[in-house]
Specification:
Chain A is an all-beta fold and 112 residues long. Chain A has no helices and 11 strands. In chain A, strands 2, 4, 5, 9, 10 and 11 form a 6-stranded mixed β-sheet that branches. With 113 residues, chain B is mostly beta strands. The chains are: A mainly beta (112), B mainly beta (113). At the A-B interface, β5 and β10 of A face β4 and β5 of B.
Chain lengths: 112, 113
């Protein structure tokens, strides 16, 4: 089955700096890669996703890149703000045919 | 449009007691899922239902049972609770289409003493 590894487990950045979170996956059949943000005590919420026919996708300050050959994908947050502080999860699945497999999460702290 | 509704939000059980966590979605989604979240472990799949009438085991099914009562409702049952089942439980749903993104419920924080 699919295995998703996520690094780092914790990340601290100064406000305004960029943050990068990286994930690798094992199943070459996976082709859907979402990222979720979870604030303290809240539910995970989808912030961006990418499919394997696309190498990069941007949405304002966040972007995701995908390298199918190397089986890794990354989340990039630019101009970080205190409200970006949360736990971020990457995940992978096969076009929704199989359940999402999640990484263990990255706790991002943005220091004002 | 409430999305995914989970009940209860909090629960304390004694070892050996049983309980059912309820989940309902009003988005006409076909697939529903139960995950548990433990510190440092991410979200691990317990059971899922790809469509009404079907259920399948996930990564950590031991000690749990599920029922897909109808298209809207998917319940998770702990027959004999153990301290190792202390966790936060999330229900989620989605349908294939333009987006495969899951919608999560607000979670149930369960403590087994």
């Amino acid at each position: 089955g699919e295995n998703v590894e996520q690094h780092p487990s914790t990340l601290s950045v100064q406000e305004g700096d960029s943050a990068v979170i990286k994930c690798t996956y094992s199943d070459s059949a996976s082709n859907y890669f979402p990222w979720y943000k979870q604030e303290l005590g809240k539910r995970p919420q989808l912030i961006i996703d990418i499919r394997s026919n696309v190498g990069e996708k941007k949405d304002q300050r966040i972007a995701v890149t995908l390298n199918k050959t190397a089986k890794h994908f990354s989340l990039h947050i630019t101009e970080t703000q205190p409200e970006d502080s949360a736990v971020y999860f990457c995940a992978a699945s096969n076009s929704g045919n199989t359940p999402l497999v999640f990484g263990k999460g990255t706790r991002l702290s943005v220091i004002a | 449009n409430a999305g995914v509704t989970q009940t209860p939000k909090f629960q304390v059980l004694k070892t050996g007691q049983s309980m059912t966590l309820q989940c309902a979605q009003d988005m006409n989604h076909n697939s529903m899922y139960w995950y548990r979240q433990d510190p440092g472990m991410g979200l691990r799949l317990i059971y899922y239902s790809a469509s009404e009438g079907t259920t399948d085991k996930g990564e950590v099914p031991n000690g749990y049972n599920v029922s897909r009562l109808n298209k809207r409702e998917f319940s998770l049952r702990l027959e004999s609770a153990a301290p190792s089942q202390t966790s936060v439980y999330f229900c989620a749903s989605h349908s294939r289409g333009l987006s495969y993104g899951y919608t999560f419920g607000s979670g149930t924080r369960l403590t087994v003493v």
